[in-house]
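okkk here we go again. third time trying to get the 2-acetamido-2-deoxy-beta-D-glucopyranose bound version out, last two times i messed up the smiles copy paste (missing a bracket lol). double checked this time i swear
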Amino acid sequence: MIWFYCTCALLFILKTSSAVDTLLPNQTLKDGDTIVSANEFFELGFFSRYRNVRYLGIWFKKVDKGTVVWVANRDVLLAGFMGMLKFTDKGTLQLFSGNNTLIWSSQPSKTIANINPVAQLLDTGNLVIRDNVTGDFIWQSFDHPGNTWLPGMKIGVDLVTGIQRNLTSWKSRGDPSPGSYTVSMDINGFPQLYIANMKDKSRWHRRVGSANGVGFTGMRGQGQSGFYEFETVYKTREEIYINFTSLINSSFSRMMLNYQGNFRQFVLNSSKWEEYITPFQDECEIYGVCGAYGSCNINNSPVCTCLEGFEPKVPKEWSANDWSNGCKHEIPMNNETGYNFSKFSNLKLPDSRDTWFNSTMSLGECEKVCTGNVSCTAYANTDIRDGGSGCLMWFSELVDMRDAPQGDDSGQDIYIKMANPTFGDKKKTHLKVTFPVVFVVVLITLGLILYAWKKKKNSHDICEDLELPLFSLDKIAKATGNFSINNKLGQGGFGEVYKGVLEEGGEIAVKRLSKTSRQGLVEFQNEAMCIAKLQHRNLVKLLGYCAHGDEMMLIYEYMPNKSLDYLLFDENNSSLLDWPRRNHIINGIARGLLYLHQDSVLRIIHRDLKASNILLDSNMNAKISDFGLARMFKEYETEANTNKVVGTLGYISPEYAANGNFSAKSDVFSFGVLVLEIVSGKKNRGFTHQGHHDNLLGHAWRLYKEARPLELVDAALGDSWTASEVLQAIHVGLSCVQHHAYDRPNMSSVVHMLGGDGALPVPNQPGYYAELTKHEVESTSSMLLLLGSVNDFTITQLDAR
Ligand SMILES: *[C@@H]1O[C@H](CO)[C@@H](O)[C@H](O)[C@H]1NC(C)=O
Ligand SMILES: *[C@@H]1O[C@H](CO)[C@@H](O)[C@H](O)[C@H]1NC(C)=O
Ligand SMILES: *[C@@H]1O[C@H](CO)[C@@H](O)[C@H](O)[C@H]1NC(C)=O
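finally!!
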C-alpha cells in the first residue's frame, strides 16, 4: 500500500515538473510526449479519435478526454504510433511519420534571417513560433483555424496577403479531415459570417449574420449576460475580422462548426461544456426562405409572413407556399409624398451584402442620411451594446429575416422606409366602405354558382381549379413515343408511369390514370389536390396535367435515379448509395415529411411512405412522391379513424393496421422502417435471419439490446460510414418504430435528432417485433389476413368491417 502511494506521488511530481510549454531548435516531440501551456489549459501532442489514425493536435485539457481544438495534419493521415514532431533551427515545425516521411510542416508567413526561434504553446491555445529576440510571431496556429474558434482568434480576411481565415468542419465526429462546411466572412457591405456547403458552392447554406457586439444577429442566447464580446474590426486596406473575447478571466469558451454544418458556442462550467449560443436549426434557417420583406417565424404555420405594411408580390404563389418572390410595399414608394420609417423589433437583421455603415454615427444621423438617399431602404444600429450605436443602411430589398421567438431577445430593431399614404390611397379605403353590400351580394351569388358547379366536378375541373398547366394529349403522346412500352417506368398507385422528352427539351414523367380503375380516379384527384399546393425540395414536383376525353394524366419532373428501392435493395446497385448519400437521403425524407406534417398550408399525412415512393434526382436528393392516399388535416385534428385501411405491409403502424387509427405518428412509424432499411439495405417485409424469426425491426432491436447495433450496417457500404452517424440513424429509426404511437417522436424532433441535437431517448420495443404468423394474423382481425396475402403492393381497398 505504502509503495503504491509513493509511486503515485512520484509520478505526479514528474508529470507536473515535466510540463513545459516550449520547444527549442532541434528538439523533438515523440508520440506520447506532450507540451502544456503555462496555465495548464491546453496540451499539444498526438491523439486518435478514429481507428488507429494519429493526429498532431492541441486539446483543451480541463475536460474529460480533452476537447480537440486544433489539428495539424488534417489532410494527411499518420498511421501508427511512431510519428514525431521536430522543431528545426530555421524555425519550422515538421511532422514525420514512422518511416521518416514529412507529412506536415508549418509554413512561415514571413522568412526572417538570423532568428532565434522558439515554439511555444500560449495560454490562449495558440501554438506560436516566435523570434526570441524581437518577440515577433513567425507562424501561429491561430492563422490556420480548424473547426474551432477560440477567444483571440480572428475570423475574416487579411486584405494585404489576401488570406481568408475560415473555419472548416470535420468530416465526422471522430474524423478531423476537412468536412463539407465552412464558416467564412463576406465583406461586401457590413461584414457578416455565412456557412457554405462545399458540395453546393453556388449558394449559401446559411447566413450566420453580422456581429452586433454581443453576438451574432438572430443567434439565440446572446445578450443574456455580459461574458463575451463579438467585435467587427474594420481596418481599411489592412484587415477585416470578427474576434471574440471573454470579459471574465475565469470563464472559458469556444465556438465550433460541427460536421453537420451547425455553428455553436460552448462555455466551460466546472469541467463540462454548456451550450451558450445555439443557432436555430429549422426551416427558417434556409437562406432567404421568405423572399424580400418576408419574415420567417417557426411557430407560425406557414412559417413565412410579409412584414406589416407589406403584401405578397405574387399572391397566388405565396398562398401555395412558394415564397421566393417575397413581398412588396402595400403603398408603393412615392417621392412626392415623402417617407416615414416603421420600426420592427426583435428581428434577425437582413442580409447585409448591399449596405453601408459607419460605426460612430448615431441612429438620428442614420435616419437623416437614409431619408435623403432614395436607394436607402432601411437602417439599424451596428452595435447593440449600451443602448445601441453606429449606423447600418440597406440599399436593396431586405431578405433573410426571421422573428426571434417570444422570450428570446436575439433579434434587433430595424427601421424600414415606408411611403406616406397619398390622397389616392385614402379614396381607396373609402370605396371599400361604401361598396361592401354590393360586394357581399356578388360573393354570395358567385358562391352559389360555384357550389352548384362543384357538385358535378370531374378531374379535369379539379386540375383546372388548381390552375395547373394543361398539356395537350398530342404533346404528351409525342413525348412518350405514343406511350411506348420502352418508355414505361413502372406502375404507380393508380396507373402506369412513362418517361417522356418534351419537344422543346426537358424530361418528364407521365402518370396515366388507368381507364378501368374507379378507385384510381379518387386517388388521382387526391394526388392532384395535395401535390399541386405543396412545394418543397424534398417533394416531387407536379408540372401539369393532361385531360382529353377519358384520358387523364399527371405530369411530373423526371427523376433520373428512379426510386430508392431500385438502388437500395439491388445487389448490383446498392453500393452506389454510400453512407454519406444514404444519410443525405434520410435527412431529405425527414425534412419533406416535417414539411407535410407541420409546415405546409395543408398539413398532410402521407399514409404510404415506403422505399418505392422515395424518388431520387440526379444529385441523389430524396423526393417524396405518390400522394394518392394522403389525407389532409385541419390544424386541430391530430388523429383520425378510417374503416378503410390503406398503406403497404411492412410499413404500416400497428395501431393503424389493427384499428384504423392514423395520425402523423403512423407516418413516423413508416419513416422509422425506412431508416432501418436504408442502414441495413434490407427490406423489412420478407426479412429472414438464420438465428431467429424476427423481422428487420425485431432484428435491429435485438442487436441494439445486445449492444452490437453496428452489425446491422449494410455490407455494401464498405468503409464509407462513420459509427457515430450510423448509430444516430439506428437510434432514430428505432425511436420511430416504437409500438406505442405516443412514444414515437414527431418529425420536428426527428429532424433535430438527425441534426446531432436533442437527446436521443432510449427506445422501447418496436411494433411488429416479430413477423406475424398466419395464426396470429387470423386472430388479430380478418383484415390483417387480407393484408398478409397482398405482399408488397399498396393496399387500397380493404374494408375493416
Ligand atoms: C529567450 O529570451 C529569454 C530572455 O531574453 C532568455 O532567458 C531565454 O534563454 C531565451 N531562450 C532562447 C531559447 O533563446
Ligand atoms: C462616420 O461618421 C462620423 C460622424 O458623422 C464622421 O466624422 C466620420 O468621418 C464618418 N466616417 C466615415 C468612414 O465615413
Ligand atoms: C446613396 O448612398 C449610396 C451609398 O453610400 C451612394 O452610393 C449613393 O450615391 C447615394 N445616393 C444619393 C442620391 O445620395
